[in-house]
Amino acid sequence: MRVRFKNCKINRQQVCGYQQGNLIVINLMKGNILNTYIHEVLHYRHPDWSHKQVYRETAKRMRKLTCQQKLCLYRRMFCPRR
Length: 82
Ligand SMILES: [Zn+2]
What we know:
This protein has about 80 residues and is of the alpha+beta class. It is built from three helices and three strands, in the order βββααα. The protein has one domain (about 1-80). Strands 1-3-2 form a three-stranded mixed sheet, covered by helices on one side. The structure holds zinc ion. Zinc ion binds near residues 39, 43, 51 and 54.
């Protein structure tokens, strides 16, 4: 999985990010980037899930994650395995 960051509007829209194949693009100018990362990874892993399902699952995970788990996810987001 590749992760790219943008520091501006994506496709002229104020979206937090999107996922396309194994590419995840995260807008650094909007929202919580960890939340966006989890959201887009869930879209990648569960292409059959609706946006609403992904949204709910993301919120659930964000609430349950420990500080250490969040740090691990940040590491994975910024230094994904090649
Ligand atoms: Zn979505």
